[in-house]
Amino acid sequence: MKRTIFSMLLALMVGVAAYGQGAANEQVLATEFVMQLKVSLGAAYSVGETPKGRRTVIPITGGTFEGPLLKGTIINGGADWQLAKGNRTELEAIYSIKTDDGVYIHIRNRGIIYSGQDANGQQSFYFKAAPTFEAPEDSKYAWLNNALFICSPEWGGEGGGITLNVWKIK
After folding, report:
1. Could you tell me the pTM of the whole model?
2. For a surface tag, which of 1, 6, 127, 130 has the fewest beta carbons within 10 Å of its beta carbon?
3. What CATH number labels 30-169?
4. What's the pLDDT tens digit per position in 62-111?
5. Where do the structural domains in the chain lie, given as residue ranges?
């Protein structure tokens, strides 16, 4: 009896483990392009070395954005607060945008910049972020409140700015 119960438990554990490995290997996340932001930046300044690392602030002075479901301008007054320690920089950009039909949307974009070696010991550069949106619940942009997003920033935007391509994770 004990041997039968043990055999059944062992078979169940092997089956669950095999299912979990197969599901993890087969699952692919789909994304949908949301918008491209062309962000204008002001002159960066440094607070200097702090107990948490080197603090740099980059003012966000404006820009434009466009995607299949929204278009508009980036509001002057936000900033990108960066904290660098070694070859890793954590960023947190907080700013607002205004759609062409007059709706304001707040954005908080957190990310990582890393320059070093990958798992195989090769030189690598990583720069990704995950924006969150706060849109009015009674607007046609409320869908931004209820999804996860990723973005791939690119240096060298217009006038020394930055370009952010944003995708929704389906």
Report:
1. 0.81
2. 1
3. 2.40.160.20
4. 999 999 999 999 999 999 999 999 999 999 999 999 999 999 999 999 99
5. 30-169
